[in-house]
Amino acid sequence: MPRYLSMVQIDEKTAPAGGPSEALMQRMGELIEEMTKAGVLLDTAGLTPTAQGARVRWEKGELSVTDGPFTEAKEVVGGYAIVQAKDMAEAIEWTKRFLKVHEEHWTVTCEVREIAEG
To answer: Is this structure's pTM higher than 0.70?
Structure first.
């Protein structure tokens, strides 16, 4: 069965300063439990803010390292999920459910891509 990576993109400028609400975390926990029991969710995690990260770039034979935050980025990867689904349509349906647990003030985008095997 194929695996899919769902990259959770958020706008750090509009995300709540205090992070996710308790209600959101509870709904997220319930969905994660359901997905785990269904054998769909293989791994998931949130990521620390870009201010705590670094970008390593290879360009024209040169390496560079840039410490965060990355002011030029509107949306950044804020987390991920790896799901195992029968096809892209099923992976997208699970992703839609993930997005719907967020309150209306969140702006969240998930990019879903099949993981290339072998």
So the answer is: yes
